[in-house]
Amino acid sequence: MIVLGIETSCDETGVAIYDTTPWEAGKPAFLGILGQGLHSQIAMHRDYGGVVPELASRDHIRRVLPLLDQSLVQSGLKLGNIDAIAYTQGPGLAGALLVGSAFAKSLAQGLNLPTIGVHHLEGHLLSPLLGQTAPQFPFIALLVSGGHTQLMKVSGIGQYELLGETLDDAAGEAFDKTAKLLGLDYPGGAAISKLAEKGRVGIFDLPKPMLHSGDLDFSFSGLKTAVLNQVKKFEARSVTEPTEVVQFHADLARSFVDAIVTVLVSKSEKALKQTGCKHLVLAGGVGANLQLRNALNEKAMKNGFEVHYPPLELCTDNGVMIAFAGALRMLSKNNGSTTSGAFDIKPR
Ligand code: KG4
Ligand code: ZN
């Protein structure tokens, strides 16, 4: 089965074509990726310090058709070869989601194909299956993106149990907000991680929220406030020496990254222990973070579990994960696919 996937939930337009043949034959899942196109709107939103929903919707409209053409050319297929169309149903920005769903539904009506609405997080959750070493079910997924921070037990396709989640900011949101405090551009996750490499360990004693809360929930807003307090303290000193300013930012970035990584790693280990699972999957944009990856790898070696990552380019939003999740769902019986042309998005 050949499935077209459309992702437009936030600030990336993603289109991809996935063929389930290798998966059904027990071969590596990534072999089914036949074509893909991705456009990031980050540069467009940067001046505003965050995603502007109306601009996002308009840009998705501009990009989605050319990206479809690109995916088709890459795959060597024609529209007539496609069997179903998957699109991100939510969560995300309502206007942005409407572009993807309207596009998917219209194309499907024209081609007389079924559509399938995919939960954006299911896309992230299953993307590590597209890696070189795919995890075995059941596994624990640490889902850390700009909008979500969750620990899930994944027992199979469609079998997800929420074990814990953030009570306030998402991990990516904490990265982005802290980056802003340190004068970095939006989205600051990758930049703060790079800055932290130049910072010294343990200069600032930042909180590690809910580290010992006993449950698997998270909270990051206090950490961001602690960073803000350090920034205010430093500003009160009116330091003008550039090297000192740079070192301060790097040290603070380092303490911030270390605090957040400590909490994410500790809770992931707790989830593994609690469920008896031996496989951990890291998914979502923050999954691209190298400090987090290094810390998890170290713990995995020491404590006898395996960590699986999606290919780096599939960590942030993309069309492949939606095509893949949609395709796997299409293979099961009660998959929720429909030939109805009504749009049904679920922003929340
Ligand atoms: O999954 P994603 O592309 O979009 C959402 O669904 O939210 O995640 C985007 C988030 C942003 O907050 C971004 O700052 C963060 O992922 N991110 C990172 C890194 N790369 C992206 N955070 C920390 N370190 C990184 N290297
Ligand atoms: Zn995402």
UniProtKB/TrEMBL annotation:
Record note on cofactor: Binds 1 Fe(2+) ion per subunit.
Major localization listed first in the record, in broad terms: cytoplasm
Catalytic activity: L-threonylcarbamoyladenylate + adenosine(37) in tRNA = N(6)-L-threonylcarbamoyladenosine(37) in tRNA + AMP + H(+)
Example GO biological process: tRNA threonylcarbamoyladenosine modification
InterPro entries assigned: ATPase_NBD, Gcp-like_dom, KAE1/TsaD, Peptidase_M22_CS, TsaD
The family this protein is said to belong to: Belongs to the KAE1 / TsaD family.
Protein name: tRNA N6-adenosine threonylcarbamoyltransferase
